[in-house]
Amino acid sequence: MSKSIDLPDCYNYKPPVTITPCAPTPNHSLYLSNLDDLMYVRLYMHYVYIFKKSVEVDTLKSSLSRVLVDYYPVAGRLRTSSEDENKLVVDCNGEGVLFAEASMDITAEELLLPCMTQHKSFKKLKCKGNTKFFLDTPLLLIQVTKLSCGGMILYISLNHVLWDGTGKSQFLNDWAYLTKNSNSNLTIKPYHNREILKTREPPQIKFPHPVYIKEPEDTNPERNFLMWLLTQTNVHTSITFGANEILRLRKQCTTSLFKYVTDFEVIVAHTWRSITKSLNMSPTHIVNICFTANIRKKLKLPKGFYGNAFVLVSAESTVKDLGFKIWILEKGSLFMWTFLM
Predict the structure, then answer these.
(1) CB 289 within 8 A of CB 315
(2) What family does this chain come from, according to its entry (predicted)?
(3) Which long-range contacts (CB under 8 A, 24 or more apart) does 174-177 make?
(4) Per-residue CA distances from 119 to 24, 52, 242, 286 (Å)
């Protein structure tokens, strides 16, 4: 496994262009649910896709223009709600998304070599807009970088306010479908209405939500984990869990749970236990883990819904119990995993 490599300079031989929907689209203000409008999703998600073969840039632009007709809010801009200055809405005005082209003297094979640490220079592949303010920035920015081997890199920046990871995948799959099938239409249309997740008035909170409770800050560095962590030297690394590694972790589960746990749960459980073990905490110290859970099936959301539909869930254990039991919150229920030591 190699160390991280620095990417060569990226040559942008054309200025970025704006891609707009290829047909007229509705012009209105789109309500955003509270899941869309959380403070910690007011950011951009970044994804890098490496292909060993290229697609013509004009083909990508054309299909992007087509998919923006169906996903017309993506071509809009965020605005502050006229009813509440702390809430955002999408102004569906068809302004478009940003698309850039570039080239780089490197091959797909070189980029795909396993490495111990993250590529620190992937920001060179990012499409750079000319806006300084969050609300004025396009909700989607794309850069296609051609490689010396004939492949390409697709660097995509998406505003998290508009969609979650599942919604992003739906959009990209639909874009890919129209790229490959230029004379076809989408079989499942995107579902835009976020009011189906509108909060109840008054709120009906029937059980505690510890993830959203802010605990009083403990200024003692011996008890405040985050304060202690800032004093440590942390090293970024990349660990690959292949099929064989996951199978070995599964075999640590009791027989009754072996076929029910998911790969994600197995990796989370192993990571949680390993990190806790490395910190040499007191056996009575309480440790938590927090991750996101998709609620689409739980709420039976319509097909094509691409908005944010995840919540934070958590599990808690003492260090001593974590050596034997892994607690995971899944689908609204609490499961106990018993691991063989």
Answers:
(1) yes
(2) Belongs to the plant acyltransferase family.
(3) 174/67, 174/70, 174/71, 175/63, 175/64, 175/67
(4) 41, 19, 21, 34
pLDDT in tens, 219-229: 665 566 777 77
Q: Residue 195 has what pLDDT?
A: 95
Q: Which amino acid is at 118?
A: Q
Query: 179 and 93 in one domain?
Result: yes
Flag residues of the chain having pLDDT under 70.
Answer: 1-5, 114-120, 211, 215, 217-224, 254-260, 323-341
> pTM for the whole thing?
0.85
Say if residue 261 is in the same domain as residue 309. Answer: yes
Q: Indicate whether 150 and 255 sit together in one domain.
A: no
Distance CA 146, CA 124 (A): 13
Domain, as residue range, for 80 = 17-194
Verify that 179 and 227 share a domain, yes or no: no
Backbone angles phi, psi at 253, to 5 degrees: -75, 155
**pLDDT attached to residue 272:** 86
Question: Do 218 and 169 reside in the same domain of the chain?
Answer: no
What does the angle CA 124 – CA 164 – CA 70 come to, to the nearest 5 degrees? 90
- In angstroms and rounded to an integer, the radius of gyration of the C-alpha atoms of the chain is 23
- H or E stretch at 65: helix 57-70
Single-letter amino acid code for the residue at 261 = V
- The answer to whether residue 285 is domain-embedded is yes
